[in-house]
Amino acid sequence: MSLPELPLLDSFGRLHNNLRISITDRCNIRCFYCMPAEGLRFLPRRQLLSYEEIARVVGVLARAGVDRVRLTGGEPLVRAEVDGLVRLLKAIPQIREVAMTTNAVRLAKHAETLRRAGLDRLNISLDALRPETFARITRRDVLPEVLAGIAAAQAAGFSRIRLNAVAIRGLTEEEVLPLAAFALERGLELRFIEYMPLDSDGEWTDQQVLSGQAIRDLVAAEYGPVEPVPGTDPSQPARDFTYAGGRGRLGLIQPVTQPFCATCNRLRLTAEGQLRNCLFSVEEWDLRQPLREGADDAALLAVVRDCVAAKRPGHLIGQQDFVRPLRTMHQIGG
Q1: How far apart are CA 215 and CA 29, in angstroms?
Q2: What is the pLDDT of residues 144-154, one digit of tens each?
Q3: Collapsing DSSP states into helix, strand and coil, what is residue 74?
Q4: Most buried of the four, 15, 44, 135, 171, by CB within 10 Å?
Q5: CATH for 18-332, among 1.20.1050.10, 3.40.190.10, 3.90.950.20, 3.20.20.70?
Q6: pTM of the entire structure?
Q7: CB 167 within 8 A of CB 180
Q8: CA distance 10 to 36
Q9: Whole-angstrom Cα distance, residue 217 to residue 305?
């Protein structure tokens, strides 16, 4: 039995135990803040890491303290037999949680299978409940499928479901209260994420950011005081609150107005096996080539340690030195 490795600490003392894995760059919707409407060239299948290769990477990182994994895309449910990957990851002894972020368009078909495979938690992207706003953001008319997917996930027994809504000034203000009511009625946790400069057209400006404070004010005006909840995980990106007399849970992820870089514990693995130490990184570390050339665990972990060691103190959004990554969100992984 191999001994545990030293933990993944960067030069600022941040401990990395959370890995986000994009399993595909393909998606069945076209959210403007994530990917272009057309002209896309997706990765050939041979360039994607296989499920066995992903499990190998996770097993190596697990020995160095990674114990939480989230599957993302693109849209993870457009890749076949995702439940098989969930089973592989759940079989790694050190992994405490396997979660997934999905747009839920195909979730009604897969919810029961994912639950049986052992998936622990779901985050579901839902930016709007008004069909016209939903279609404007996603460039698709699939809101009924998303709502059916949420219902199916609850029926399958998923109890820890979060709704993730990107907050965009001038577009989604009128969605805040309907989403709050929807989540409250169904016992779902609601998180708003400030709009970030990862759009495919490169047209993001800070004037388009609907801030976490603005959202909190909107919810408070309808439901009364929005009270902070003491955090149980200092590395989580959201600040948590209760509303509606404690019956609802609201999370605010504020990378623009209140960056949380100082406590970041996350690494990201792209669908083609590139490791990133920040969503806004302009560098990547290749794991696919050494994997396919027969590298041993020590060699793979050395690449990971180089990546962690190079992590910068923060993303610098809104500052003069900020550099947008060349990739858009669907290529990096949510």
Answers
A1: 25
A2: 999 999 999 99
A3: coil
A4: 171
A5: 3.20.20.70
A6: 0.94
A7: no
A8: 34
A9: 42
